[in-house]
């Protein structure tokens, strides 16, 4: 599903950045993509996706 329609950033891309590259916040996502740089409506949803990924990462690290 596209989270940022303006720049074509998907939920899969956000999850990939979090899991494979250790990106844990919106600032990190913005450094890797153009998320939120146009209309900004996607930022809230991207934060929710990152919050869902964090518990999964903590389980993997244990």
Automatic annotation (TrEMBL):
Q: Indicate whether Iron-sulfur appears among the record's keywords.
A: yes
The BFD-like [2Fe-2S]-binding domain covers which part of the protein? Answer: 2-52
Its needed co-factors are: [2Fe-2S] cluster
Q: Which residues form the signal peptide?
A: none
Q: Which UniProt keywords apply?
A: 2Fe-2S, Electron transport, Iron, Iron-sulfur, Metal-binding, Transport
Mention any Pfam family matching this sequence: Fer2_BFD
Record-linked Gene3D superfamilies: BFD-like [2Fe-2S]-binding domain
Family label: Belongs to the Bfd family.
Name it.
Bacterioferritin-associated ferredoxin
What does UniProt list as this organism's lineage?
A: Bacteria, Pseudomonadati, Pseudomonadota, Gammaproteobacteria, Vibrionales
């Amino acid at each position: 599903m596209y989270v940022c329609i303006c720049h074509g950033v998907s939920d899969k891309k956000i999850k990939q950045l979090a899991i494979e590259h250790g990106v844990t916040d919106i600032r990190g996502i913005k450094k890797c993509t153009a998320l939120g740089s146009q209309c900004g409506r996607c930022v809230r949803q991207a934060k929710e996706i990152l919050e869902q990924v964090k518990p999964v990462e903590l389980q993997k690290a244990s």
